[in-house]
Known about the structure:
InterPro entries: DUF7882
Distance between the termini: 42 Å
Helix content: 25-40%
Protein name: DUF7882 domain-containing protein
Radius of gyration: 16 Å
Domain DUF7882: 1-97
Number of strands: 6
Amino acid sequence: MGTLYYGDSGTPIGIDDRTLAHLKVAIVTKLRRGESFTVSWMHADDDPRGRSTLWLHHTIPLRFVFDDVEPPELSREWIEDLMRSANSTGGVLLVDEHVDTDRAPKIAAQQFDA
Length: 114
């Protein structure tokens, strides 16, 4: 479980390492361009019910902390989904990674059809 620290509050926001790695790419891309935006997510089952939203601005301190030593392999599709939502009026909506389960069996089957 990774952690996102935003601003001076010191309140940790727990986010799965893989999710946080993808979110980091989207956030850093937007902030590098000097763009402000929001990030929203539903609370985890073990947290109080509800959802949260952060307003991200390049002048506010931000730190990403990962539990895993090695960075995960990133999904271009997931990053593109996050970037599309970052460019919308609603800001980034942190959603689970979309995994195309139909594609894997087809690829495996094609390997053995030769």
